Amino acid sequence: MGFLVQLLAFILLPLLVSMSAEEINSSQPCDFLALFNFGDSNSDTGCMAAAFYPEILPYGQTFFHEPVGRASDGRLIIDFIAQHLGFPFLSAYINSIGTSYRHGANFAAGSSTIRRQNRTVFEGGSPFTFEIQTEQFNQFKQRTGKFFNKARKNSFRRHFPRPEDFAKAIYTFDIGQNDIAAAINRVGTEDSHAVISDIVDYFGKQVQYLHELGARTFWIHNSGPIGCLPVAMPVHNAMNQTPEAGYVDENGCVNYQNDMAREFNKKLKNMVVKLRAQFLDASLVYVDMFSAKYELINDANKEGFVDPSEICCGYHKDGYHLYCGNKAMINGKEIFAGSCDDPSKFISWDGVHYTEAANRWIANRMLNGSFSDPPLPITHSCSAQ
Predict the structure, then answer these.
(1) CA–CA separation, 24 vs 26, rounded Å?
(2) What domains are defined for the chain?
(3) Is Signal there in the keyword field (predicted)?
(4) 3-state helix/strand/coil string of the chain
């Protein structure tokens, strides 16, 4: 009898899963009224540029034809998310010129971390930690609600979300990679496993805080393969030195760095599962960006890209690192770190960030739910629970 039950379960389970997928595809999409994003430079649409120094050409050259505060030649994944959901590009929260927040706001800032770091902006740090970003959101929600009800003119209301829009918004997250990079830099001086657990705990507390503020739909990206960033690869960091066996994988990615990202991702997923059980009125979708990005890196040539270790904009040779758009004297010669002829053939824009072409490729594959848990397209992500 037990064998028959197991056999029936084995036969019917795929059918049930298939039915569930068909029901999802045929059901009505979520009626999201706004989009709020939290993150680092992977999704910063102008925060750091507005707060400190604006980007310079050739940043922004492909789509915007001018620098627009994005660490890419064009659009970021968050831009493709906004377009996919029918929203305009998100304005950075602190950008006061030419902004509209009617359909949401972007609190992401370049170099941001989940935990506070002992670094200044000039040392590659950011004052806009995840905790600060959620507090900015709290202030944004309170102040827009206060003035929205007092405003008599439509001019104000055209530029800000309605109080009821916050509960019907989708909240997206792409942060943690800089925390992992900081932990990598301190390997040997602290317990990396404990640090990663602490980082994930910090993340969970901020998600809980946003839930208290009324957020109900969460779309959470894990960390990408940090060991596959070209500036991390030995080919750009050593002079004719061959790495030891096992140091890199078949794509030239640094194994121990990717292993730390994988550990972070595993703990992040476990945290998401716990929050699902805690918040029965919320939807939390975990998105495996690591797998999506690594698939592109692994299949680069097949997908029409050059070798994933190549960098479109910048000078990274013989141990010298001159980042995109800058000039310097190297070995008695003035070098300008300009752009390649065709960014659409490159995965890496500046050695750290992705090109618009790569961002589009990744977005096209993750927005349909292929890398999500549960496997929901973003348009149906309010139905995760």
Answers:
(1) 6
(2) 32-304+354-383 (3.40.50.1110)
(3) yes
(4) CHHHHHHHHHHHHHHHHHHHHHHHHHCCCCCCCEEEEEECCCCCCCHHHHHCCCCCCCCCCCCCCCCCCCCCCCCCHHHHHHHHCCCCCCCECCCCCCCCCCCEEECCCCCCCCCCCCCCHHHCCCCCCHHHHHHHHHHHHHHHHHHHHHCCCHHHHCCCCCHHHCCCEEEEEECCHHHHHHHHHCECCECHHHHHHHHHHHHHHHHHHHHHCCCCEEEEECCCCHHHCHHHCHHHCCCCCCCCCCCECCCCCEHHHHHHHHHHHHHHHHHHHHHHHHCCCCEEEEECHHHHHHHHHHCCCCCCCCCCCCECCEEEECCEEEECCCEEEECCEEEECCCCCCHHHCCECCCCCECHHHHHHHHHHHCCCCCEECCCCHHHHHHCC
Residues taking part in catalysis? 41, 350, 353
Name the pairing type of β-strands 327-330 and 333-336.
antiparallel
Compute the distance between CA of residue 145 and CA of residue 122 in angstroms, rounded to an integer.
36
User: Of the candidates 120, 87, 109, 97, which has an alpha carbon nearest to the alpha carbon of residue 378?
Assistant: 87
Looking at residue 98, what is its pLDDT?
A: 83
Tokens of 47: 């925060």
Tell me the per-residue pLDDT of 308-327, one tens digit each, with 9 for 90 and over.
Answer: 999 999 998 877 889 999 99
Q: Confidence class of residue 19 from pLDDT cuts 50, 70 and 90?
A: very low
For residue 269, give the amino acid letter: K
* pLDDT (tens digit per residue) in 195-251: 999 999 999 999 999 999 999 999 999 999 999 999 999 988 765 577 888 999 999
The tokens describing 273, both together, are 């599962």
Specify burial of residue 385 (Cβ count, 10 A radius: 0-12, 13-18, 19+): middle
Distance from the Cα of residue 281 to its chain's centroid? 25
